[in-house]
Specification:
It comes from Aspergillus candidus. This is Thioesterase family protein. The chain is of the alpha+beta class. The protein has a seven-stranded antiparallel beta sheet, sandwiched between helices.
Length: 265
């Protein structure tokens, strides 16, 4: 006699192969019913052409930028130098918001620099001689506010006065700061002349070549006398960020006769 358990086991053995074969048959039917449909992939050439145009344009601009930065600056007075100076002057006249703002302010008078010097004198000076042309101190314009005793100098700094690549040399920048503070001092001193007795500069951010920068100078009227002029100033980039701060003392020597510079800049 077989017990109930053995009867149940025998029945399971008989059913197992059938269930497995049925599941396999069902799986094969499912696989065979899902046949891959033919698909057409879009052409990659339009995308490749777009990428080629983008990277080609970027490469061209990068090449021109590197050529301008690495190649020697144009010689002052050359055709290339004159062309660059014309472009710089055009930017000054039409693209600088600070120029438009100062011209619309009746308290400011616009003037050129080195007007008090002859052509021979300018050639023998550091900034107007050796640093002339688009490679150096390429452009300067002064705005003077006589009420506030404040001078604003718009300056274009060329690639020939770099210390590190693309960064203006700190000594060259200090020279321009010294001259600009001195202009505000000389306008105050009755003898219209003077020398630098003390100059302190704090460099706050890099000054990059190939751009316009704004130099400010303000006379300290309370501390200044007929023989001493205290002036503070700063340098700002095209976005208004302070790149340098400075203060200077300018004096008229008692035992050394200096040439009178004149009433202009």
């Amino acid at each position: 006699m077989f017990g109930p358990r053995r009867v149940l086991q025998s029945r399971l053995r008989l059913l197992a192969p059938q269930s497995i074969s049925r599941s396999r048959l069902q799986a094969s039917r499912n696989v065979s019913s899902v046949a891959p449909s033919p698909t057409t992939e879009p052409s990659k050439w339009p995308r490749r052409l777009v990428y080629a145009a983008i990277f080609g344009t970027l490469g061209s601009f990068a090449g021109k930028w590197m050529d301008e930065k690495v190649s020697a600056p144009p010689r002052p007075g050359s055709h290339e130098d004159r062309r660059r100076l014309e472009d710089i002057h055009h930017v000054y006249e039409h693209q600088l918001p600070i120029v438009k703002k100062l011209r619309n302010d009746p308290d400011y008078i616009e003037d050129n620099v080195y007007v008090n010097y002859s052509d021979d004198d300018k050639m023998n000076r550091f900034t107007s001689g050796l640093l002339r042309g688009s490679r150096g101190v390429a452009f300067q314009k002064i705005f003077w506010n006589d009420k506030e005793k404040k001078a604003v100098n718009i300056v274009y700094l060329g690639t020939g006065i770099e210390g590190w690549p693309t960064v203006v040399h700190g000594g060259a920048l200090g020279t321009i700061i010294d001259e600009h503070l001195g202009r505000a001092a000389v306008r105050h001193l009755p003898e219209r002349t003077g020398v630098t007795a003390n100059l302190e500069i704090n460099y706050r951010a890099p000054v990059f070549s190939g751009h316009f920068y704004t130099f400010y100078a303000t006379l300290d009227q309370e501390r200044s006398t007929d023989r001493k002029a205290y002036v503070t100033g700063e340098v700002r980039d095209p976005m208004g960020q302070v790149c340098a701060q400075a203060s200077g003392l300018f004096v008229v020597p008692k035992k050394y006769e200096l040439r009178t510079l004149g009433d202009r800049f």
